[in-house]
Structures are given as structure tokens and as C-alpha cells.
Design goal:
Mean pLDDT: 96
Protein name: Alpha/beta hydrolase fold-3 domain-containing protein
Structural class: alpha/beta
Pfam families: Abhydrolase_3
Active site: 160
GO molecular function, one term: hydrolase activity
Shape: globular
Domain Alpha/beta hydrolase fold-3: 73-290
Strand order of the largest sheet: 4-5-7-6-8-9-10-11
Number of helices: 9
Order of helices and strands: EEEEEEHEHHEHEHHEHEHH
Distance between the termini: 62 Å
Length: 314
């Protein structure tokens, strides 16, 4: 069989990997340019951070806006570590809307994706981008950050795989301090899993084996299901010593990862962590519904909750 047409790993509905090494992504491949968003007035631009790896970010600010310092939001997009982009129509629209409502300086990171770049590439890229952002606390070349960013109010956030990344780079900041304190972490439908079922999670062995296999795939078969990057409950200190002041955990009733999100909140609050945590659940909705149905009433409430989290004065 032609190696360019022989599938060696099928990861529906996201992609197919062929024997030749060719990757065919089935969804989440469209890109849009940065610029002024006519619907919100938010302006965005792209910044290349590392020529060698291609690491870049898309920055967002309200325009027109008073030149007062605003909270800094570092956002990690979802997509199972294999699809979507900081430059996709889905995330570009989401960030434009969020920035217009919260009036924050937002940074959406374009990290490398599996399988071409297995984990930890996405973690490495996200942490490098976060370090670049926080380096502007004492000035820097990027004026949108150096002149508009309030580095006493820095937030990490993400959805699905992006929430997993946000959690893990915050954990990394324990050992590799960023030079600023992180105000908050927002985990939206976070992609966490583990060997043993939690709460009402499915217990079917074949189903759980499939999730274990896909995790191996995105890691380049270098890690298993007990990896603490996937199962944060394997490392008690990762919760007890989480280096931020506030955490928002958002889950959806019909989401596969709902139980893990609730367990994250429960274990965080019981761990002795000194911060303030909030758990919010959206009834009757699936995983990241607010991206596929951005104009529905519940999506508006989801975004309003995140805006309140970002703009509250501690």
C-alpha cells in the first residue's frame, strides 16, 4: 500500500496520521488575520517570539482605549493538542469578544501541536511565551504589554487541552519563578484524565483504553495515563502549592471531563492551598459548547463569569 495513503493512527474527529508521516487534519485548520475587529473595535496583532521554533502569540487590546494599565490574560487554546490555533476563526472571535467585555490585554499563544511536535512541545512553548510576557513587567519591546499591562493582575486561562496547558505551566512556575505573581487561573472544561474512574465517569475498559491511547499519541508514546500532566491528582503538591491567588473551574453537565473538573476543585480546596476557588457548572451543555454556540444565552453567561473573574479587584 502507498505509505501516503495507509493510515497508521486514526484520531477522529481530529486527524489521520499516515505511514509516510503525513498528517491530515479534518477540522480546526482555518486561519484568520489579525487586525481591527469591526464588531467590537478590538485590535490584534501577531508577534514572533522565537524564530527557531516558530513560537508566536496574538495580542489583543481594546481600541479606542484609555492608556490605563489593564489586567493581562494569557490564553491557551484547546483542540486535543492536535488541532486549532491561536489564529483560528473560533478563537479569534472568542478573544475579540472577551477582550471587548473585560477590557484586558490578552495574549493567545500559538504553540506547536502533536503529532509533528509531541508533548512536551506545547508546554515548553506556552511557558516560554508566558516568560516573554511577564518579562515586560519591568519594560520591554512590546508596547502593548509594557505600557498597557498591569502585572499585578496576570491571569492564565484555557479551555480543554488549553486548560491542561495553563495548569501545567502554572505548576512549572513553582520551580521556575516568572518574576511576577499570578493573580488567577481559569480552567474551562479542562482536559484531565487518569487510570481510575472519578465520580460518574465511564468505566468501560475499551473506552478508557482509547483515551489512554490518544494520550500516548500526543506524547509521542513517551508517557502513560498516570502522567501527572494529565492526572494532576498524582502530584499532591501541584495543587497544594499552586502559585496563584484565585482559581475558577468551569464544567458542563454533559461533558466527559466534568467529573475531573469537579474533583480538581474539591481536592484543591481540601489540599491546604491558601487561595480562593470557585466552581461553576453549566447545565445541559457539552464540552466547550460556548465555542460552537457563541451567541447562545448560556455562552454569554459563561463569558460573563470569566469577565467577572478577570476584572474583580482583590
Amino acid at each position: 500500500m502507498d505509505p501516503d495513503s495507509e493510515i497508521i493512527f486514526d484520531f477522529p474527529p481530529f486527524l489521520c496520521l499516515y505511514k509516510s508521516g503525513r498528517v491530515h487534519r479534518l477540522i480546526g485548520t482555518d486561519y484568520v488575520d489579525a487586525g481591527v475587529d469591526p464588531a467590537t473595535g478590538v485590535v490584534s496583532k501577531d508577534v514572533l517570539i522565537d524564530v527557531g521554533t516558530g513560537l508566536s502569540v496574538r495580542l489583543y487590546v481594546c481600541c479606542p482605549s484609555a492608556y490605563t494599565r489593564r489586567p493581562v490574560l494569557f490564553y491557551c487554546h484547546g483542540g486535543a493538542f492536535v488541532i486549532e490555533s491561536a489564529f483560528s476563526p473560533t478563537y479569534h472571535a472568542f478573544l475579540n469578544n472577551l477582550v471587548s467585555r473585560a477590557d484586558v490585554v490578552a495574549v493567545s499563544v500559538e504553540y506547536r501541536r502533536a503529532p509533528e511536535h509531541p508533548l512536551p512541545a506545547a508546554y515548553d512553548d506556552a511557558f516560554a511565551a508566558l516568560r516573554w510576557v511577564t518579562s515586560h513587567a519591568s519594560g520591554g519591546a512590546e508596547a502593548w504589554l509594557a505600557e498597557r499591562g498591569d502585572f499585578d493582575r496576570v491571569f492564565l486561562a484555557g479551555d480543554s487541552a488549553g486548560a491542561n496547558i495553563a495548569h501545567n505551566i502554572l505548576v512549572q512556575a513553582r520551580a521556575e519563578p516568572l518574576g511576577v505573581e499570578i493573580e488567577g487561573l481559569a480552567l474551562i472544561h479542562a482536559y484531565f484524565w487518569g487510570r481510575d474512574a472519578v465520580g460518574s465517569e465511564p468505566t468501560d475498559p475499551a473506552f478508557r483504553q482509547w483515551l489512554e491511547t490518544t494520550w500516548g499519541f500526543v506524547c509521542g508514546w513517551s508517557a502513560g495515563i498516570e502522567d501527572p500532566r494529565l492526572d494532576p491528582f498524582r502530584d499532591e503538591a501541584s495543587l497544594r502549592e499552586l502559585p496563584c491567588r484565585r482559581v475558577l473551574v468551569s464544567v458542563a453537565e454533559r461533558d466527559l471531563f466534568r467529573e475531573r473538573g469537579k474533583e480538581y476543585y474539591e481536592r484543591l480546596t481540601a489540599s491546604g492551598w491558601a487561595g480562593e476557588a470557585e466552581l461553576a457548572e453549566t447545565e445541559g451543555e457539552d464540552h466547550v459548547y460556548f465555542l460552537s454556540e457563541p451567541n447562545c444565552e448560556k455562552a454569554s453567561a459563561e463569558k460573563a463569569r470569566l469577565v467577572a473573574f478577570l476584572t474583580r479587584i482583590s
